[in-house]
Amino acid sequence: MKSALLLVDLQNDFCRGGALAVNDGDATVAVANQMMLWCKSRDIPVVASQDWHPAGHKSFAANSHQDAWTSGELNGLPQVWWPVHCVQHEPGAEFHPSLNTRLLDFVVQKGTDAEIDSYSAFFDNGHRAATVLNDWLKAAKISHLYVMGLATDYCVKFTVLDALSQGYQVTLLTDGCRGVNIEPHDSAEAVEAMREAGAQIGTADALNG
Ligand code: VGL
Ligand code: ZN
């Protein structure tokens, strides 16, 4: 079994001061750096996803004439209306400055189609188009993923569920995740949904002993 580490959306806009800041989101960066060293000493490749929206993305409340943090429907799919975030080439879309990006082997960008959101690093929310992530992992003969990042209840959750349905074994590293929590229990429910779908629930702390 060959593993890879998948770091989900460790970007400025999901961290302190960002447009869609996740509570304590910055705390995931040290965990990511530690896990990357753990992986490098075991020849485990590291992949990062990057939320990468055009300025006109329709998931942005302003572009769809909705109030941020409410929900509705976008092209037939349920949609939370988000503040403008992770706009391509803007500082908010960059990886957190403390993330040791030199240790990344591959970056997959998602959310580039203005008409559909893409929480998962594998597919858009309608499973209409795939990213290049599955091809990259298949070429590297990866069958197991350690997954962590932001946000537990959106991009981590949808990435893990898609990984499982694509046949990967998944270990979720909960100490490397933080959630948006529009409802207080969203992250706990997301972890439970991932566990029920077949993910192993672990921590970076336990791996690093
Ligand atoms: C995310 C909301 C909108 C995430 C991305 O990375 O979890 N959440 N876009
Ligand atoms: Zn987004």
Question: Which features characterize this protein?
Answer:
8 strands; Rossmann fold; 5 helices; six-stranded parallel beta sheet; alpha/beta; 209 residues
Describe what you observe in this structure.
The protein is of the alpha/beta class and 209 residues long. It contains five helices and eight strands, in the order βαββββαβαβαβα. It has a single domain (3-54, 95-208), classed as 3-Layer(aba) Sandwich (Rossmann fold), CATH 3.40.50.850. The protein has helices at 27-40, 133-139, 152-165, 186-196, 204-207, and strands spanning 3-8, 46-51, 71-74, 77-80, 106-110, 144-150, 169-178, 200-202. The strands form two sheets. The protein has a six-stranded parallel sheet with strand order 5-2-1-6-7-8, with helices on both faces. A two-stranded antiparallel ribbon has the order 3-4. α3 packs parallel to α4. The chain is globular. The protein starts with a strand and ends with a helix.
Topology summary:
Layout: E1 3-8, H1 27-40, E2 46-51, E3 71-74, E4 77-80, E5 106-110, H2 133-139, E6 144-150, H3 152-165, E7 169-178, H4 186-196, E8 200-202, H5 204-207
Parallel strand pairs: 1-2, 1-6, 2-5, 6-7, 7-8
Antiparallel strand pairs: 3-4
Helix pairs in contact: 3-4
The structure holds pyrazine-2-carboxylic acid and zinc ion (ZN).
Zinc ion (ZN) is lined by residues 51, 53, 85-86, 111.
